[in-house]
Amino acid sequence: MTSLPAPREPLRRVAVIGGTHGNEMCGVHLARHWLKAPGELQRASFSAMPVLANPAATAACRRYMDRDLNRTFTLTFLRSEATPDDPYEVTRARELNQLLGPKGTDQAFDFILDLHNTTANTGVCIISESPYTVFNLHLCHYLQMQNPDLPCRFLEYETSQNETYSLESVSKNGIALEIGPQPQGVLRADLFSQVRALVMSILDFIELFNQGKAFPAFEMEGYRKLGAVDFPRTSDGGLAGTVHPRLQDHDFEPLRPGDPIFKLFSGEDVLYEGDSIVYPVFVNEAAYYEKHVAFLKSEKIQISVPALPGLTSSPTVAS
Amino acid sequence: MTSLPAPREPLRRVAVIGGTHGNEMCGVHLARHWLKAPGELQRASFSAMPVLANPAATAACRRYMDRDLNRTFTLTFLRSEATPDDPYEVTRARELNQLLGPKGTDQAFDFILDLHNTTANTGVCIISESPYTVFNLHLCHYLQMQNPDLPCRFLEYETSQNETYSLESVSKNGIALEIGPQPQGVLRADLFSQVRALVMSILDFIELFNQGKAFPAFEMEGYRKLGAVDFPRTSDGGLAGTVHPRLQDHDFEPLRPGDPIFKLFSGEDVLYEGDSIVYPVFVNEAAYYEKHVAFLKSEKIQISVPALPGLTSSPTVAS
After folding, report:
1. What is the rounded CA–CA span in Å between residue B217 and residue B306?
2. Which of A35, A87, A101, B161 is deepest in the core (most CB within 10 A)?
């Protein structure tokens, strides 16, 4: 796992974002709440800024209006000339890039925490496509230590070959926090409380880092995305079946060659034909039907995480 | 409970309908499947017709395009003059009224079975607003006998004072079959199989009735809708909290005065202030947020169902 050095300055410009997808209700309602009552987002060395990323989709309780906002933060979109016919989310991505970026510049925010829900039974999942992997791995480890009863998994999402497109890619560092299962358009009190507590822990971790605390090296398990598997389809592109009951709700559990993955409407089972064990993630996520994804395949990886050194630029050390 | 006499003729014109709400996936995919392969819908005395009620909303995977189709089958809408500016669902309701009605006439279909999903933990629920309550109660009882392990509850939905507005009100008799929990936009194989098996049982029951079988009187429990309870709101109309964890997923279980119903974002609990036990239904249903409904209150009722006499118009009896 390649990674850039950890940040060498305190993270002072931090954003906590909900409603990047307008029907993922934990982030939507936490952002709305914090916009009115931001006290919970204050720490000694910084105050995180709450942002409601997609107000139009949130008002309509839809994932997006014209296109998926969280696939729109490429430099191609952000640097293209604005026109009156731009999709709503392209316009909104440029606005957010002005607020939180510009992407790839020194002016960009230090950290974006983007809050998501999934209909899949993922539990808590930290998704990182940031080059600052070491910092994010320590953050995930801190959450695991703080919440020993809550599965909190680390998913390395994209390879370095692709241009990053997610909202958190606008900042110097960031993560997406996924939690599920929660239906689109529904706010469950249990998940709302969990996400809120996790955000508090994440801000606490950033505060400890800003105060100069060092974090020792450790070993952890993680998951690395390998690819996607589509639903079985009819000749006209419709569904010919859906996720098999033995795979449904079993995110992050081993899927072995020969295990059933789909139940066809004809009654037959479709078996997994790979040649090694994989770990399905986002199994039967509502928003992925249109992306032709029934589930993602991931591999389990062992990660040797180096120490996160304490910041040495504090006045006491520098004097 | 008032009810009209049971039907005195065989039910030969029967429709099985999915996609009245375009993101309730069991009905959507069963209707699509049966439109290609209708064999399962054939019985000796009739062949049920599969219908995809809202093709545009189904294609968009939304509940509706312009307005809730299942609130649009009033005579006011159905008889109003068509204009180019009509909402999509008003136009579609008139088309379905031509296909399956006209509502309130002798030409109307004998029975409509409308398939729905809910994000609430209702299990299987038969909703009847039809005057032919006795027939529908016998149908529900038959499903309970056929599926002893599957809770199958009967909910009397509307009082006779209101103008009926649902799709099944277009036919002479009908029910809505609700099953949950299932997120909007997700097709779970377990629920898909349950709904399919229930539809088979319902068609079997109609076939038995058509063949002249009589069904004896019995006693059963049911639920009668009393009213709706909105979410707690802020002064600007936004949510101030959501369904309490102790109520979430507890549809059809007794709610006592003093029990918690909402958890406010401030951390406080809101308690139920009624003066008698009620039975919440459709607890935290995604589609009801915009209708200002956090859950419906119902009362449990004991129903003495009279015998459903066998049809006497068959040639052997008449001779």
Report:
1. 4
2. A101
Average pLDDT taken over every residue of chain A:
94
| Whether A101 contacts A73, CB under 8 Å | no
Phi, psi of B50 (to 5 degrees): -80, 140
Q: Does B13 touch chain A (CB under 8 A)?
A: no
Cβ A248–B184 below 8 Å, yes or no?
no
Predicted confidence (pLDDT) per residue in B163-200, tens digit:
889 999 999 999 999 999 999 999 999 999 999 999 99
Query: Up-side HSE of residue A257: CA atoms within 13 Å toward CB?
Result: 4
Token pair for B171: 């036919």
Q: What are phi and psi of A79, to 5 degrees?
A: -100, -5
pLDDT digits (tens, 9 = 90+) for A105-160: 999 999 999 999 999 999 999 998 866 689 999 999 999 999 888 889 999 987 55
Question: What is the rounded distance in angstroms from the CA atom of residue B88 to the CA atom of residue B147?
Answer: 38
Q: Which residues are bridge partners to B221 per DSSP?
A: B302
| Measured distance CA(A195)–CA(B285) in Å, rounded | 21
Residues making up chain A, counted from first to last:
319
Residue A238 contacts B where some CB pair is shorter than 8 Å: yes
Kindly give, in sequence order, each residue whose CB lies less than 8 Å from that of residue A37, ignoring residues fewer than 6 positions away.
none
Residue B188 touches chain A, beta carbons under 8 Å: yes
**Hey, what are B268's tokens?**
């406080």
The CA-based angle A213-A1-A155, given to 5 degrees, is: 80
Please indicate if any CB of chain B lies within 8 Å of the CB of A242.
yes
Tell me: the pLDDT tens digits for B239-283?
999 999 999 999 999 999 999 999 999 999 999 999 999 999 999
Question: CA-CA distances (angstroms) from residue A10 to A14, A127, A199?
Answer: 10, 22, 18
Residue B263 to chain A, least CA–CA distance (Å): 7
Whole-angstrom Cα distance, residue A7 to residue A311?
A: 9
User: Token pair of A51, please?
Assistant: 């942002």
Residue A154 and residue A130: Cα distance in Å, rounded? 12
Distance from A245 to chain B by nearest Cα, in Å? 6
Q: Give the chain A residue whose CA is nearest to the CA of B186.
A: A286
Q: In whole angstroms, what is the distance from residue B58 CA to residue B178 CA?
A: 18
How many angstroms separate the CA atoms of A100 and B84, rounded?
45
Strands B295-305 and B218-229: antiparallel
Q: Give me B160's structure tokens.
A: 């006779």
* Strands, sheet with B295-305, edge to edge from the N-terminal-most edge strand: B49-52, B14-18, B111-117, B174-180, B123-128, B152-156, B218-229, B295-305, B279-281
Look at strands A174-180 and A111-117 and give their pairing. parallel
Q: Could you give the CA distance from residue B84 to residue B97 in angstroms, rounded to a whole number?
A: 18
Strand pairing report for B111-117 and B174-180: parallel
Q: Residue B199: how many CB atoms within 10 A of its CB?
A: 23
Length of chain B measured in residues: 319
Please, what sign has the CA dihedral across residues A101, A105, A108, A112? positive
Q: Do B248 and A189 touch (CB under 8 A)?
A: yes
Q: Please indicate if any CB of chain B lies within 8 Å of the CB of A298.
A: no
CB A103 within 8 A of CB A75: yes
Contact (Cβ atoms closer than 8 angstroms) between residue B52 and residue B18? yes
How many C-beta neighbours within 10 Å does residue A260 have? 17
Tokens of B203: 């068609």
pTM above 0.90, yes or no: yes
Residue with token string 């009847």? B128
Q: What is the ipTM of this complex?
A: 0.94
